Amino acid sequence: MYEPIRTPSVHSPADDADFPHRSREEELDIQLAGHLAALLAVTDELGLGPAGDRIAEQVARLRGAPPARHAALTDAAPASLHRRAHALAGRALVVAASRADTTAAILSAQRMDAHTEALAAAAAPSGHLVGAH
């Protein structure tokens, strides 16, 4: 009644494929370098040179080559850039923790703290009371 399957399933794994496979650690290195490179671009746009240099060192360590530094400005508001940098540092922290990269995790956490402080300082009242008599 049923005819047997004569061809291999398209869902079977290709064990003898001839393309290179990356290990989980290599994939995490690539992912972490990408998050840190994005963080570097925002950090450079904010004009935070020493912090950018530290991030660039980590990207170079992960990629084996120094990263391209961000030169163009987007004219985005500093608060927006700090929020974006905070989110990128958080992503980098998650990946760094996943691959047990203490150096990158500490750097990411420090950058998150720095951007949190910058956002808090921008939101704090300036001390001038408007409309007070």
**Percent of residues in β-strands:** under 5%
| Structural class by secondary-structure content | mainly alpha
Assembly category: single chain
> Overall mean pLDDT score?
87
Topology as a string of helices (H) and strands (E):
HHHH
Proportion of residues in helical segments:
55-70%
DSSP strand tally: 0
The main pleated sheet reads as: none
**Gross morphology:** elongated
User: What low-confidence regions span 5 or more consecutive residues with pLDDT below 50?
Assistant: none
Count the DSSP helices: 4
Task: Report the radius of gyration as a whole number of Å.
Answer: 23 Å
| N- and C-termini, Cα separation | 95 Å
Notable traits:
133 residues; mainly alpha; elongated
Question: How would you describe this protein?
Answer:
- The protein has 133 residues and is mainly α.
- It has four helices and no strands.
- The protein is elongated and about 85 Å long.
Brief summary of the model shown:
It is built from four helices and no strands. The protein is mainly alpha-helical and about 130 residues long.
List the topology elements.
Elements: H1 24-46, H2 49-63, H3 78-98, H4 102-123
Helix pairs in contact: 1-2, 1-3, 2-4, 3-4
